[in-house]
Specification:
5-stranded mixed beta sheet; 11 helices; 320 residues; alpha/beta; D-Maltodextrin-Binding Protein, domain 2
Length: 320
């Protein structure tokens, strides 16, 4: 009987210690590795979230930009970090793309991480240079079908969302265009503005000022539904059946991160998603801020990888 009560006392002490640890987390600043360059739309969104998390968690969230390798360099650093809750990873659709297309990744895109939550989803915008004689999606399709291989599109690199989004467009619309690959989104936009290419699939934050000035023409959004940020634009899927391409951002942590830390971070992101300032800032991007449990985000990530794997099976493309 003494042994029984001693066991009960030990269990109670363990639960009390675990509860105290959960309440005390975080006890110091948290590093958010962002495997992207500073200054772009994804980096802006990461910094907005970091500010809100800092206010909620009462600890600074430090953005650690680790660009390179199509996000592989920063992701590798996060996968090998100590799983104590003080290193987290900012991820986007590139994480799923790499899992589906890339060979010999130095980490497992699923098994090396704990899902925390999805933060935001938003559309891409299909834009053209004003010199292109097509003001609607049906006119663009007719032009591309009539002159296969004549027109170019800009991408921010082989395997980027801007590249795969238009390769998917080519596949489903049965048209032929030539990819002109730039070293990042800013050079690709410059190429479009300069008329080096005729079209591109771009994020709203980076392209909306150029749409407003008339330097580019917006034809459609990439999501399954119309975007409140571009209420007059149809979806690409309205003209090209089955087409859908969504930009998204989320949070992962190294495998083995304590559940208490995962749950605390998930709740803090959920609180950020109700932050009016943050909502108003992301609204021009057409951002949705869906709340997900860690399990739901894990399922979402698996589904995204599966979707890109299906696309890979139809394209003659492999990332190294």
């Amino acid at each position: 009987m003494k042994i029984f009560f001693a066991g009960i006392a030990l269990l109670a002490a363990f639960l009390q210690t675990a509860g105290a640890a959960a309440l005390s987390y975080p006890a110091r600043p948290i590093r958010m590795i962002a495997p992207i360059s500073a200054g772009g739309g994804a980096d802006v969104a990461a910094r907005l979230l970091a500010k809100s998390l800092t206010d909620t968690l009462h600890q600074q969230i430090i953005i650690d930009n680790r660009p390179g390798g199509g996000s592989v360099i920063g992701t590798t650093a996060a996968a090998s970090a100590t799983p104590d809750g003080y290193t987290i990873l900012w991820v986007s659709g590139a994480h799923a793309i790499n899992a589906a297309f890339a060979r010999n990744l130095p980490y497992d895109s699923i098994k090396s991480f704990e899902p925390v939550t999805l933060f935001a989803k938003m559309p891409f915008v299909l834009v053209t240079h004003p010199s292109l004689n097509a003001k609607t999606m049906p006119e663009l399709l007719a032009l591309l079908l009539a002159q296969p291989g004549k027109f170019n599109y800009a991408s921010s690199g082989i395997g980027s969302a801007s590249h795969l989004g238009l390769e998917m467009f080519k596949l489903y619309a049965k048209v032929d265009m030539v990819n002109v690959s730039y070293k990042g989104s800013a050079p690709s936009i410059a190429g479009l503005l300069g008329g080096e290419v005729q079209m591109a699939l771009l994020g709203p934050l980076s392209v909306k000022p150029h749409i407003a000035s008339g330097k580019v023409r917006a034809l459609a959004v990439s999501t399954a539904k119309r975007s409140p940020a571009f209420p007059t634009l149809p979806t690409i899927g309205d003209s090209v059946p089955k087409y859908e391409m969504t930009s998204w951002y989320g949070i992962l942590a190294p495998r083995g991160t304590p559940r208490a830390a995962i749950d605390r971070l998930n709740a803090a992101v959920a609180a950020a998603q109700t932050d009016k300032t943050l909502e108003d800032t992301l609204a021009p991007e057409g951002a949705e801020l869906p709340r997900m449990t860690p399990q739901q985000f894990g399922q979402y990530l698996q589904a995204e990888i599966g979707r890109y794997a299906e696309l890979r099976s139809k394209l003659d493309l492999r990332l190294e």
